């Protein structure tokens, strides 16, 4: 039977989601916890990959196992076993063909910026001390909604077949002391959100105008865009699935 | 001339505010930064003491120095010099007799509780998984407003002359995912807020009734009250001074 697991993590101490040799990743720690508790080697397939240091407030993965009688108890045991920086929200059975990566309809990311030194956001937001023209940054964000090909914001050594993404929302707003960039799309390319944020920050700092952003999007060349914003400000906040893949949600 | 410095800190890596041998404290780190930048040994007097691991969102101290021409620049240099977990909000001249500790009219603390595992509050809130009767906890909090003598919540080996405190507000409320206890008084005894929180949690868990809380307050004996809640959930959030002690506020 197939199960979805919904969880969150504080990314600082992990080399991202995806398992790799010689570095601790969230996938490895999660698989280890599931395998120990269920008494069988469990492989999980994540909804996507997050880079080293990136956080997730809501992330999904799927795994296969025989019938789990008490998913509530499994969640309890997982949370007791996992370190403080990974928390499981729930585990629920899905249709056998449901796929955490391919069935995800959209992903939402947030990028958090603070404008003055704040001890409580030192590991959770990027400090930009200079004044930012938020209106201009929102105008530039709107340009993303009309764009389809995002090769200009993609890592050059990538293995994807297409650079097409459908951006559904992209805007900046203050939430208390934090300037939050929220962006939703059907899919994202590797490093894409941080490259977008780095570019929009150049606009906010007055170093780049909207015409230049348009030219960057057209150029399809990563070298033209702004520097990638630091990982610690980035959060995967929502992964959306169609209603019908969920069998029982407990 | 006398100056007030307003600052905040994330308490995890400090053995509290007050200087002591063989342990790093916020006072020591702040004095070191001021002394290095101003080129003279600077002693600061804090508005109060916070224990090891306790955070401060707003804390004040005073120090003496010759005229500082550009306090804005001093703040900038202090923030560049200080570690990430201490931030200076501002520095401003006050009347020569102004005193950060004795002139403070009130202090406000908050205690943060989360009710399920959350990687983003692992170092910043206390995790209480069991259901809490918030109404009962608020009824018990109200009893504090009528009380004057708080010896029952004071460390036994204390050097204070009086246990009298005037509690101005004390209540629990949810702020998004966090259950926040807010308490304001003219002064607090050592460990008092954490002892109060520990006691009110017993009420919320159904282990103690309001009659017992009344009896504890009357008893003036710390052994009767609940266990002290962990330091990581506690924040000093506001220190209030009379308007007239501020000469220039830069």
UniProtKB/TrEMBL annotation, chains A, B:
Gene Ontology molecular functions: RNA binding; tRNA pseudouridine(38-40) synthase activity
Entry keyword Isomerase: yes
Catalytic activity: uridine(38/39/40) in tRNA = pseudouridine(38/39/40) in tRNA
Binding positions (substrate): 109
Keyword GTP-binding included in the entry's annotation: no
Keywords, in A-Z order: Isomerase, tRNA processing
Pfam families per UniProt: PseudoU_synth_1 (PF01416)
CDD domains: PseudoU_synth_EcTruA (cd02570)
GO biological process: one example: tRNA pseudouridine synthesis
Domain Pseudouridine synthase I TruA alpha/beta, residue spans: 6-103, 140-242
HAMAP family: TruA
Family of this protein: Belongs to the tRNA pseudouridine synthase TruA family.
Function as written in the Swiss-Prot or TrEMBL entry: Formation of pseudouridine at positions 38, 39 and 40 in the anticodon stem and loop of transfer RNAs.
Name under which the protein is recorded: tRNA pseudouridine synthase A
Organism expressing this protein natively: Cellulophaga tyrosinoxydans
Lineage of the species this protein comes from: Bacteria, Pseudomonadati, Bacteroidota, Flavobacteriia, Flavobacteriales
